[in-house]
Amino acid sequence: MSAQMNLAVPVDGEEARSSEPTAWWLRVVGRDWLAPFVLLVVCLCLYLPGLTSVPPLDRDEPRFAQASKQMMETGNYVSIHFQELARNKKPIGIYWAQVGVAKLLGYGESAPIWVYRVPSVLGAIAAVLLSYWTARAFFREQESFIAALLIALALILNVEAHLAKTDAVLLACVMLSQGALARVWLAQQRSAVWSSALLFWLGLALGTLIKGPIILMVSGLTVLSLCLWERRVYWLRGLAPITGLLLFLALVSPWLVAIYIETDGAFFRDALGGDLWGKVGTGRESHGAPPLTHLLISFIIFWPIPSFLLATFKGIRQELSKFCYRFLLCWLIPSWVVFELVSTKLPHYTLPMMPVLALLVAGVMMTDRAASAGVGWRFASAALFLLVPLGILIAVVVGPLLLDLWPSPPGVVLCGLAVIAALSATSKLFEGKLVSALPSASVSAVLMFVGFWAFSGPALSTIWISSRLVEAVDQLPGCEWKEIATAGFYEPSFVFLQGTQTKLLGAEAAARFLANGGQETGVSSGTCRIVLVEGRQLDRFDAEALLLGMKTSEVSSVSGLNINGGKTLLVHIFSAGGAAQ
Questions:
Q1: Do the beta carbons of residue 202 and residue 130 sit within 8 Å?
Q2: How do residues 229-239 score in pLDDT, each as one tens digit?
Q3: Which of 219, 271, 395, 528 supports an S-S bond with 578, CB 3.0-4.6 Å?
């Protein structure tokens, strides 16, 4: 197998080309010199709306952002903490990325939440561009553009791009490593393919620093499966394993050694023995689910890829004998099986395998086999595509009404237009004109995501309890300085927005804090002591206040729906000290 195979096309000559004429727009944008720029513009339209207007979304996002903020506050860039609690779950990479962006943009520890989301946006964009690069190892320019476009439009990647978490950046690292691995495997050389090998090990190192062993599992199982399938291992020399391993260790080990010394080994005990193994054996944080759960939810969260996958499924089965499809199957199946067997299941776990589905679809879409699906498959494809835009439209209309709010007019209009564009795409899908469905599918995605993130989401004020609490506290008069404690409402978003020094107390401790003025902390004149008490904690708070001989006076309250658990909350605000005492 020669190195020329890195641009191999999985079709048998021109007779396999589609009877559907290649659209003019695809002939224009599907070129190496233009496709990355077009993909970049599409990504910006998809991922930037709502980035600055949506408040911190509990619970993982503000935990990451708060830990990054505390690194800047303390100057400790080795260990990871949420307030006083060690956060020994994920490696340091995403925190360094968030800190770097916050400092680069000049915000520092006062950075708003959107600054901490920038690495996720950049990660999502990089993942899409690297998907195009990965696809070029197998397909022509136009097929590669289709694959990358489908990945850019994916619902789950859009969500991850809007959250200050690890997964969008991890996907970029996975695409870097897997794209390089594909080129080494296609070359089938007995000597190092240096450029691809170094990129492979670089992606592994960065991915390990972002989310630990996940990328090692995905790439490792791909390599192992390829070796077992083909019963040959000489091509592994192309990865320059000795040099690559040294590079990997040089990039990863400094922080591993530092965190081991800093925490006396506690990080590894908690991250591997507690967090990782706990997710494998039991459903952590009420996220347990049976096998095949990931397969079922992928039909929604990978939208619109599953719709095109159903329409091309028969054609893909006919193409699986092609040599290059071995790599894609070895990438997809082993890791997916592992995630199905793991007890804890969250939607984003299978994100590293999503690009494989887009690559499988793209390899068939421009062949005659793309139109070989029966009426039932085409109907299912069209219905599945319409399901997400229609569901989002219903949500942005009905959701606010259930919360006693008016729907956002711009959000409803944009999501309604998204459904109209989706109807155009569904008609093309039903007719088997898959390439022709892509423009209207793209328009539908942009309209839907802009409508939701930029307008409808931020307008759901009832669910943004933390930001409303911070606003209510800021509006209290006569307080030069504030000391804040909360009882019963412990969402990380409130800590991030209100400040690291926010005290999370029980009801009795909150009453004592308000009564004695927190004398142990040296409260100065002009300082207000403010306590937030969630309604279910109010009786205990009042009982303790009565024992202390303190007469409490409520100065404000905030009600809303906590999306974590779906419970309606009423948070009472009490103040003492300053002019308000």
A1: no
A2: 999 999 999 99
A3: 528
